[in-house]
Amino acid sequence: MLLRDGGCAVPGCGATRHLDVHHIVHWSDGGPSDTWNLVALCTHHHRSHHRGRLEISGNADLGTIVFRNQHGVNMANDGPRPEPPEGPPPAPTSEYHPPLCERLDMNYVSFVHPARLAPFTRQAKAWAARHAATPTS
């Protein structure tokens, strides 16, 4: 089974170490320990399955395992992950300007919950409506 799966069987996961053997039909629900019912999962995906974030179904020997996320969306394997680019990154196209690293002046910063801003928003809208009706010379 480990040779068949070659690592964590979840599409896009490249884990090949610290794998768990998972029963597709759970052993506690009467699922057999036959190879068609066993799949290799990394610890992260095994835990995700048992927390309800990953659904697994199908026959492992036939390669018909289907993985769905917590929203029921099929996690189809679209192929291997792309190889990282080789060589140095491209040269910058413009001059870099670092932040000024100035001290944050707390006199100009206000952390207000949006619910507390509602009265001010109504006042601002009323002011804008009054001044939009007034012609400017």
Written description of the protein model:
This protein has helices at 2-5, 43-50, 118-133; strands at 19-23, 38-42, 54-57, 66-69. With 137 residues, it is an alpha+beta fold. A two-stranded antiparallel sheet has the order 1-2. A hairpin with an 8-residue loop joins strand 3 (54-57) and strand 4.
Q: From the alpha-carbon coordinates, what is the Rg to the nearest angstrom?
A: 28 Å
Write the H/E string, N to C.
HEEHEEH
> Fraction of residues in helices?
10-25%
| Structural shape | elongated
- Structure class: alpha+beta
| β-strand amount | 5-15%
What is the CA–CA distance across the termini? 83 Å
Strand order of the largest sheet: 1-2
Tally of contiguous helical segments: 3
Outline the biggest β-sheet.
Answer: 2 strands, antiparallel
Low-confidence stretches: none
Total DSSP E strands? 4
What is the residue-mean pLDDT, rounded to a whole number? 83
